[in-house]
Amino acid sequence: MLTLCLDIGGTKIAAGLADPDGVLVHTVIRPTPSGAAAEQVWGAVDATIADALHAADGAVTAVGIGSAGPIDLREGTASPINIKGWRGFPLRDRVAAAVPGVPVRLGGDGLCMALGEHWRGAGRGADFLLGMVVSTGVGGGLVLGGVPYTGRTGNAGHVGHVVVEDGGPPCTCGGRGCVEAIASGPSMVRWARANGWSAPPGAGARDLAAAAAGGDPLAERAFRRGTTALAAMIASVGAVCDLDLVVIGGGVANSGRLLFEPLREKLAEYARLDFLAGLRVVPAELGDSAGLVGAARLATL
Ligand SMILES: [Zn+2]
């Protein structure tokens, strides 16, 4: 008995086969065709599914899909901001047609990351959990009362678009001052450059982290600004959802102490209510496979 799990994002399409304990026994990864039309992107997903099904040799009993969002669970569609060819793309039905005869369940990639960490990673034992990814964007998903919380359309947990700065920088969502527009890797790099950080043209978040770790004051300020925004968002979401744990993964989270120490300091300043005293913030454990593991979990719930 294997679950076929999919993790579909703007840069890669991954398929996995998970055993009943959530262990990935097989993984296939393909790049997402960039700027491609809907059917071309689907072609890559379909080929990835075919590879996994071949390896499974008929043992697949359920399918879970984690897709970049927004999605719409009512229609089973995906319109990922970073896959421009897909707008209202009927992802659930297409996957169901490619893997006939088994149940297929769709969820957002942030939700699947949170579920994966809750099942087999840093979130084990925590039943009110926010899973977050801080990388080129800021994404997230909620597990509340031990079960995935999808919201009305499947998009609950889009914590990157919690507004933390009135009149702040413009965001990819069309709004302003969202935490993603301040704390994502590219946003921190953009702010650092605008304030005089002199780095080579191609330098990114990793270089900024290295500079901050090396004591560059401007890079340190950029990180502090990002972590302050994240702390404000986490304190707010923590209070709204009465959370006990926040798990953070993604490229920026890999900068370790540089992120977590100032974040915990600021959080202690913002989250003052008694019921938030035990709110912990920890690094993710599953890395890139969290989304696949969570999609497998989603399929069997
Ligand atoms: Zn936004």
Describe this structure in words.
With 301 residues, the protein is α/β, with parallel strands linked by helices. Helices cover 37% and strands 22% of the residues. It is built from 9 helices and 12 strands. It has helices at 38-56, 91-98, 109-120, 180-183, 185-194, 205-213, 217-241, 257-270, 290-300, and strands at residues 2-8, 12-18, 24-31, 60-67, 71-72, 77-78, 104-108, 128-134, 138-144, 147-149, 245-249, 280-283. The strands form 3 sheets. A 5-stranded mixed β-sheet has the order 3-2-1-4-7, sandwiched between helices. A 5-stranded mixed β-sheet has the order 10-9-8-11-12, with helices on both faces. The chain has a two-stranded antiparallel ribbon with strand order 5-6. Helix 6 packs across helix 7 and helix 7 (217-241) packs across helix 8. The longest helix has 25 residues, at 217-241. The protein is globular. 50% of the residues are buried. The mean pLDDT is 96. It binds zinc ion (ZN). Zinc ion binds at residues 161, 171, 173, 175, 178, 180.
Write the layout of secondary structure elements.
Blueprint: E1 2-8, E2 12-18, E3 24-31, H1 38-56, E4 60-67, E5 71-72, E6 77-78, H2 91-98, E7 104-108, H3 109-120, E8 128-134, E9 138-144, E10 147-149, H4 180-183, H5 185-194, H6 205-213, H7 217-241, E11 245-249, H8 257-270, E12 280-283, H9 290-300
Parallel strand pairs: 1-4, 4-7, 8-11, 11-12
Antiparallel strand pairs: 1-2, 2-3, 5-6, 8-9, 9-10
Helix pairs in contact: 3-9, 5-7, 6-7, 7-8
Bound molecules: zinc ion.
